[in-house]
Specification:
By secondary structure, this protein is mostly helical. Helices cover about 75% and strands about 0% of the residues. The chain starts with 6 loop residues before the first helix and ends in a 5-residue tail after the last helix.
Length: about 120
Amino acid sequence: MPEHFDASRDLNERARQTVLDLVEFGEMAARLVGRGQPAYEEDEALQLAAEALVHRLGEATARLMRQAPQLVTAHPEIPWTRLRATRNIVAHEYARIDHALLWRALARDVPEMTERLRTLDES
């Protein structure tokens, strides 16, 4: 992270809460992924839960992009735009939902984002 960015100094309370929300949603995603891909592929309820999580993650990501653009800029390795765009598909284009894509996002992108945000104050 660039040295000029200090989460404790540069984030207001609302942005800090959004970061905490994203971490919480990431932990939920980890629990869903922990059930395993075969269970996910066979269970419609897990797929719907994944959709809900992606929706929440995308909403919180969009909010953070407005609240703390400096944080977004400081972490280009986090796929902010992709998370927000995936939310839009889940929310508005039901026929285009690719559950394999949602699984990959929850299993790969979200844990990386969660870990980066969890350790923000330690940087």
